Amino acid sequence: MTGSQKEALRARLEFYRDLGVDELYRRNTPLADARGSEAPAPRRDRERAVTASPESSALPSLSPSGDTLDLIRADIGEDCKRCRLCEQRSRIVFGVGNEKARLVFVGEGPGADEDAQGIPFVGRAGQLLTQMIENTAAKEGIPIKRADVYICNVVKCRPPENRTPLPDEMEICGQFLFRQLMAIRPAAICALGSTAAKALLATKEGVTRLRGRWHKWRDIPLIVTYHPSYLLRPYNQDAKREAWEDLKKVLHAVYD
Ligand code: URA
User: pTM for the whole thing?
Assistant: First the structure.
């Protein structure tokens, strides 16, 4: 394989990793068969994505050119049935805030209040998030309000009983989250809690290990911090202090 083929293959694998696809199975192509390739037999039962020969096709675009939040919302549709979360949701909760935001917060999925209103982070956790953003910004002399940032979730429909979204739900809805992020292209992303961190960093590590340092989603700097629902629980003084530190760090990086 030549250097440029390796580079194309690497880019393709990164693309699938960003989509949350971490298992790839190789299918014999007519060309490989003719060469007597030793590639393993196809596993069609589990096949999720197939590596094409690196030069055979351009990378599919994660963010169609000219993509906008309105187009992404329209693509989701009014009655999305791509996964089982449609069965019990009242409303699709797409996202809220400034389409040109320099900072995007990503949570896990809508809760009961969000499901009823169609707006992310409006319940108790949402009120805490709003306070954290506005109070920290004010204390640090940064003139922003909640409406200046953009807030969305990994999954757009409420999981029953507020359970954690399942991997296939995150993968299906993740394509819309990634398009939102690519359309906004913020200066930084703040992942709230381990589900958002998992979706954006393809990691199994928890928040405690991930927080406090910079990561990247594609080429965008990303900070992980505790989910506001976790901070609402009693006896979390240390986590609260750490979350304020994370927030200060990301606000200064973006707005200084
Ligand atoms: N928790 C989330 O992760 N998202 C919301 O929108 C509300 C609560």
Answer: 0.79
pLDDT tens for each residue of the chain, 256 residues long: 787 777 777 777 776 666 555 555 554 433 333 333 333 333 333 333 333 343 344 444 556 789 999 999 999 999 999 999 999 999 999 999 999 999 999 999 999 999 999 999 999 999 999 999 999 999 999 999 999 999 999 999 999 999 999 999 999 999 999 999 999 999 999 999 999 999 999 999 999 999 999 999 999 999 999 999 999 999 899 999 999 999 999 999 999 9
**Of 56, 243, 53, 83, nearest in space to 155 by CA:** 83
- Which ligand 1 atom sits closest to the C-alpha of 151? 6
C-alpha 122 to ligand 1 mean position (Å)? 8
Would you say the CB of residue 95 lies under 6 angstroms from ligand 1?
A: no
